[in-house]
Amino acid sequence: MVTTKKPNSVNKDTSEKDRTVFRKVERMMQQNKVYRNSSLTLDSLANDIGVFRNMLSRAINSCSGKNFCQYVNTYRVAEAVKLIATKAKTGMKLPTIWKEVGFASRTPFYIAMKEICGLTPTEICSSKKNSR
């Protein structure tokens, strides 16, 4: 079983303003799935939620303990793992999966999967096949 860390654990030592901004970010990630946009940037997300870039960065760092890229990749990897699990049923290929979840190319996808899950996408595919 492949597990990913939950992306929305809020640090208790953050300011109320940071927590408010972070809740807006969480809504954008969970409801709008903005992480699927491969050109998502700190600036574009800050603009979307109506805050300054540095305020958004501080909120993500203090509330999640991750930088912007790590935070976004947590969502992307969690969705990729779900898609890989259903890949056999749908016939979806890995390049389709990494594009679907917001990675622009293979290398960042493999690096993020290995960093977050401890396995490459290919290893995850193999483990899913063997668990049936």
Largest sheet: none
Give me the oligomer status.
single chain
What is the residue-averaged pLDDT? 88
Structural class: mainly alpha
Binned strand content:
under 5%
Beginning-to-end CA distance, first to last residue: 11 Å
User: What's the SSE pattern?
Assistant: HHHHHHH
**How many DSSP H or I helices?**
7
What's the number of extended β-strand segments? 0
Count the domains. Answer: 2
Principal-axis shape equals elongated
Q: Percent helix among the residues? A: 55-70%
User: What is the CA-atom radius of gyration, in angstroms?
Assistant: 15 Å
List low-confidence stretches: 1-8
Explain what this protein looks like in three dimensions.
There is one protein chain. The longest helix is centred in the middle third of the chain and has 23 residues, at 68-90. This protein has seven helices and no strands. Mean pLDDT is 88; it is low at 1-8. It has 132 residues and is mostly helical. The chain has two domains: 16-65; 73-130. It is 67% helix and 0% strand. Helix 4 (68-90) packs across helix 5 and helix 4 packs across helix 7 (121-130).
